């Protein structure tokens, strides 16, 4: 039998294009496999905050004693990260068997890498005796492979401009694609505080049970604690979620609304909510690694998420110099990303990424130079994220900070051998 890596290599060659939107091919194979869940399914779509929302849902439900399955994408380091069963990553052998199960019935249907792996992971989850399944949409919603499964509850997180060539060039168009995961008569949690009207209109047109941030649920808080109120339940005096960043309260609010909407089927206690939010972990989401200098890892890869990153960096306090390692896909709005964070960064280290669709470090440097208005900053180019990070470490003083962002592949390149601990030049490495 093929190993997981052999399956992944094979899948990459199977379909002529990497991204091929549409459900016909994947649904044909899913029907042959009789893919379905015998438990509640929560599907999460949105531009930013999907991974955090899935992680918080999983953490609370695990604390409540439920057997959970989670499908997220992309991964940071290892493909197995995409599928978590009962709180643990699936094993390579189990995933390899799931890929084989897809291939056994695929026939002459051509599947993209994402479609093939989605079917394999859903197959694995469907046979894992779950109490609840959590599915993260890969791209868009309406035509994403995940949408072959009818969600019992869907969550739509913040919506912003991204993947414009596929989803549309404005928030209304993008929102319309995200809204495609809704189902008639079932709850849809819209945690974006200012959602596109297209999302609201679609929910009403199909008769979905709409939960809107600011109307059906909300949060409040001070520097010490926060509170949440929904349609029939309140939580007060809660510690802030373990995931850092101002935007995480919005994500957590959507999570609590989703859990309230499904309370009749998967009830959770207040203690499970408190413990889950306090213990949740998700690498690469404003992840602060203590050391000298401090290291910040963030998968922010579009203007909206980079703006949140800039706000979070600003809230960290004073650092003499901020160094930034940046690698980005070529289809991103680089200029807008740079503009959001430019005032915060004193020294840039642009990096190549191991994908043909990534921007070259030299192109990133040229684009940065063209918009740079500061005389007190500089940049360099590097062949990999680790080489860029090493250059930043060599240049940094102990009191500085280094931020790595721009893509899952940029952060993943730093985490491939584990979380690095930085020690300043004068510090013993022990």
Task: Describe the protein's architecture and organization.
- This protein has 430 residues and is α/β, with parallel strands linked by helices.
- It folds into two domains: 276 residues, Mur-like, catalytic domain (UDP-N-acetylmuramoyl-L-alanine:D-glutamate ligase, 3-Layer(aba) Sandwich); 129 residues, Mur ligase, C-terminal domain (Protein-Tyrosine Phosphatase, Chain A).
- It has an eight-stranded mixed beta sheet with strand order 4-3-2-5-1-6-7-8, sandwiched between helices. A six-stranded mixed beta sheet has the order 12-13-17-14-15-16.
- Helix 2 crosses helix 4 and helix 11 packs parallel to helix 12.
- The longest helix is centred in the first third of the chain and has 15 residues.
Tell me the name of the CATH class of the largest domain: Alpha Beta
What spatial form do the alpha-carbon principal axes imply? globular
Q: Radius of gyration from the CA trace?
A: 21 Å
Unreliable stretches (pLDDT < 50, length at least 5) are none
DSSP, total strands: 17
Tally of alpha and pi helices:
15
Q: Report the major sheet.
A: 8 strands, mixed
Give the amount of beta strand, in percent: 15-25%
Helical residue percent band: 25-40%
Give descriptors for this structure.
eight-stranded mixed beta sheet; Protein-Tyrosine Phosphatase, Chain A; 2 domains; six-stranded mixed beta sheet; UDP-N-acetylmuramoyl-L-alanine:D-glutamate ligase
């Amino acid at each position: 039998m093929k190993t997981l890596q052999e399956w992944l290599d094979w899948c990459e060659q199977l379909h002529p294009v990497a991204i091929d939107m549409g459900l016909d091919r994947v649904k044909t194979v899913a029907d042959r496999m009789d893919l379905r869940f015998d438990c509640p399914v929560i599907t999460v779509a949105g531009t930013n905050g999907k991974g955090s929302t899935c992680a918080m849902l999983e953490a609370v439900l695990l604390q409540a004693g439920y057997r959970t399955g989670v499908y997220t994408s992309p991964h940071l380091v290892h493909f197995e990260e995409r599928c978590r069963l009962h709180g643990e990553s699936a094993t390579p052998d189990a995933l390899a068997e799931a890929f084989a199960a897809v291939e056994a019935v695929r026939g002459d249907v051509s599947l993209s890498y994402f479609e093939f792996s989605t079917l394999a992971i859903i197959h694995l989850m469907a046979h894992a005796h779950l109490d609840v399944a959590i599915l993260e949409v890969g791209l868009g919603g309406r035509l994403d492979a995940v949408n072959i499964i009818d969600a019992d509850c869907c969550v739509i997180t913040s919506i912003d401009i991204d993947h414009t060539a596929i989803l549309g060039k404005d928030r209304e168009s993008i929102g319309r694609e995200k809204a495609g995961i809704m189902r008639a008569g079932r709850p849809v949690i819209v945690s974006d505080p200012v959602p596109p009207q297209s999302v609201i209109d679609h929910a009403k047109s199909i008769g979905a049970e709409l939960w809107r941030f600011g109307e059906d649920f909300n949060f409040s808080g001070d520097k010490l604690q926060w509170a949440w109120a929904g349609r029939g339940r309140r939580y007060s005096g809660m510690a802030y979620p373990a995931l850092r960043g101002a935007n995480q309260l919005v994500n957590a609010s959507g999570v609590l609304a989703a859990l309230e909407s499904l309370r009749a089927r998967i009830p959770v206690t207040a203690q499970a909510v408190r413990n889950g939010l306090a213990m949740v972990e998700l690498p690469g989401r404003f992840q602060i690694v203590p050391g000298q200098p401090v290291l910040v890892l963030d998968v922010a890869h579009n203007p909206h998420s980079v703006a949140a990153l800039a706000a979070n960096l600003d809230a960290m306090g004073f650092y003499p110099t901020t160094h930034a390692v940046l690698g980005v896909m070529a289809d991103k709005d680089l200029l807008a990303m740079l503009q959001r964070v430019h005032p915060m960064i004193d020294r840039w280290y642009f990096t190549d990424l191991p994908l043909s669709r990534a921007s070259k470090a030299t192109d990133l440097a040229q684009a940065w130079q063209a918009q740079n208005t500061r005389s007190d900053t500089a940049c360099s180019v590097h062949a990999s994220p680790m080489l860029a990070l090493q250059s930043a470490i060599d240049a940094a003083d102990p009191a500085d900070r280094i931020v790595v962002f721009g893509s899952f592949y940029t952060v993943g390149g730093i985490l491939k051998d584990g979380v690095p601990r930085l020690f300043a030049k004068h510090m013993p490495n022990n």
